[in-house]
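Consider today's protein:

***
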Amino acid sequence: MDWQKSKRFLLTLAAAYWALAALVYFVAGDQFHRLTVTSDALAPSSAVGEIVDGMELRQRVTLIADSVQSVDVMAATYGRANAGTMRLRLVDQQGETVAAASCDVSSLKESQYVGVPFDSAIEHRKGEALTLVIDTQGCLPGASVSLYTGNQATTGRFDIVQNIAEEDRYTLDGAPGVGKLCVRLSGVDTLAFYRVYWVIVAAAFALAAALGRYWWRQAMRGENNPLVSLCTLRTRYSFLLRQLVSRDFKTKYKRSALGMLWSFLNPLLTMAVQYVVFSTLFRSSTPNYAVYLLTGIVFFSFFNEAASMGMTSITGNAALIKKVYMPKYIYPVSRLVSSLINFGLSLVPLLLVVLLTGLPLRPSLLLLAFDVLCLMGFVMGMVLLLTTAMTFFQDTQFLWGVVSMMWMYLTPIFYMETIIPQKLLVFYHMNPMYQYITFARICIIDGVSPAPTAYLWCIVSSLTVLLLGIAAFKRHQDQFVLYL
């Protein structure tokens, strides 16, 4: 191992680590300080009838955030122009008004939640129960609105019936009603994550530095470890790696008239077909659906291509492995690098679609560097696991074809998360590809940073699968030649 080059390489990695940490902290901004929270939405089932002057609606609500800022109401307008003012108050157990809001009933929309901001944010204790009082001023019969009620929490196409306690049902002039009003509170939770962010970053760096120092001492004694493999790949086998990647590209685009242009065309053509099907035939009304769809296609295609190519990285190089000695991990790494280059090229049409649809280019796009880095670790781990399995069991490639197709349909690529039943969401969130794709969509479409938990999901899934892949590959690599 070239010690001087290895030291420079490790110092470069350390600098890149701190640069990425600073980038994430400063671009993430408010998302590391505050989290927007909204209470569950109810699916409308009926209406209370016209709310005119002299009537009063009451319902118990629970504060769902540190600072509650607005209340959303769903009105029935009867398809006409209405006039007057709707007044909303939150009252504590002593009958004191905690916050008040009002809106012109003409601004309310049929069967849609409309936010009504409070005059000032509510700084009461999170989880405290208050009473929402609603009345009107200047609302006359035949020119007023109604509010919808329901007893089902909506999750897109699926509704979950809620068991509503008697004290949580609405009352109209003191008479109990059926179900709850379709109202929800919106507010902001203050996060302490930004206070400990640099502590976590420094602790992770210190742990990595201590492990690196231990491995460095092992390397000086002539022992092999992951640090030696990484430095050797960079200092001794970088030329060979470039040649293997070049060979992969030449093989892939051999006798192709368009060559690498297919890296641009494939995601665009796939998006065009699925966009026509799901936005026209199935009438998807998702905002920025083209960007939403193409983001899922590009990220999942990288994962699927790298896994499929990397799976045969050992068996496909059997002749070379038997004749020339070189570290076996260089073959799956070369396949990952080849797919990564294709992935980078396919990001260009994604950027073009973003511009063509009118989405602004915001600083949150820089956070994709973190997302892609975690995705690379996850994909590398999957490649190592699959190529190890493929060497011993040739049927792995056929099984992977079924698993990858199932994985694609279980990842919200062309459909929205809102159609997933609430009870199944926890399983979807355990899907690493769901986390990486959702992370990218938030950065690109919403223009903000994901919540801190999204970063944690990405890091944990990436490191877990990567370490499993390294352990499996290292344990069995000496036996590969016996099965080639």
User: Anything to note?
Assistant: The radius of gyration is 28 Å. Confidence is low (pLDDT under 50) at residues 155-161. Residues 237-483 form one domain. Residues 193-220 form the longest helix (28 residues).
